[in-house]
# Entry
Amino acid sequence: MRSIRMLTRLLLPAMLAGLTGCAALPDMSPYTDATLQLRSTVVAGGHAVQAGLESAAASYEAGDPAARQIREQAAQFNQAWRARIDGADALLAYTEAVTDLARSGTQGDASARKLADALGGLATGVGVVLPAAGTVATITDVAAFVYGHIAAARAAKSLDQALHAAQPAVDRLATVLSQDLQASLDILHAARRLQATAMALKFNEETAYLKTLARERKAIYGKDTQTPADEQRLRQIGELLDATRSWREPMEQAQADTEAQYRLRIQLIHATQAAVAEWAAAHRSLAAAVRENRSVNVEALVQATQEAKELVRRLRTL
Amino acid sequence: MSEWDSIEGFQEWSDKLGELLGEARDAARNPDADARFAISDRLTAFILNSRPNNEAIKALDDIAARASQDLMLGVLDERLMEIVGRTAEWLQVAKQFSEQAASAGAQASAIRLEKAHRVAQSLTESVHRLQELRSSLVDTDDPEFARSVTKAVETLQKLRAQIERIT
# Structure
């Protein structure tokens, strides 16, 4: 019996390689992980735009028509962005399905054994007298081994068809998402400027006071010679500027925080754009790799999504 | 020296605002948002730099603020409409991916011989029930029924052999 098994192991691989074309299936898990991350980034990108609009609205006095209009736009954006999240969910479901398809090709041996067990149970049930246990094991081994190769070939063919059939949708999604992200960038830029205008009006008196003092100090510094009166005035200006610290520093801190949040949101959208482009390119590479029976490197995609992930983490901590 | 340093008095500030509003009108017609962002920045800079901060100058600041807001609210509206306009396409793409996912899932299931496995399990269960039924029949029961049960078990046996062959 051992010699039959040995012979099977020696002869069948060559025969099956000829029949199935040595199907090699790529490890799709990094691609699935990257797609999951891309989905999170799409969600976070939507939140970032929403937060940018809400910050802009909050800069206005309550009841200001501009604030109401911005809030309405934020609600409209939120509703429209849900379709993007649904799209990203469908994309993830697709990626998981093709990953599972690739995995099914590597599990042919186990699938055949599972079925053999079930059929063995059925045979006992209907009263079929099975051959001796050793013979059954050998038959199962051979069947599982053969089916392992058949499954790999079938999965490679199905995966090839699935990846190529999906490529137009992948390209379309990448284009549409990229356009949406570009529009989102403009929304964030506009929201930031609305905020800046509102803040300029809100702190108009304070800013004017600071600028007046700064201008006077600059004029004194610009003189060829300074009189004792000039020196006295410079000291006074210094004291006046010090006295503004209690309200100036919180105001400047708030402005710096707002600017930092804006920069981070912009960075996140840019990172998402890069990740989407890498994702579509990686899909194309995977499709080609499966067709040409070679390995594929999705490191650029993994790196792009990692960068986006880090930005999402930083945004959450703000 | 910035563009604001040499401006003095209400008239000069008013003239400067007139110049900026003219540029804002041109930018509003430009589909590229960057031109509008640039003029919005200058209108805000006008608010921050105009002086002295008396009522007349503040009135100019309010005009500058409104112009900047109108430009930016216009950008928001345009971009939002673009996004909303693409929503139908998203729904279509999502549907395509869902279909692709279902198709790939079905193929994976077929490769795993899941259907055949389920059929085998279901048949095994049926056989056990039939065997139980056959053994519970006594001689006094309908012999025709007993023969039908035996035939059913034989049919299942044939079916099993066929499953083995097709998979």
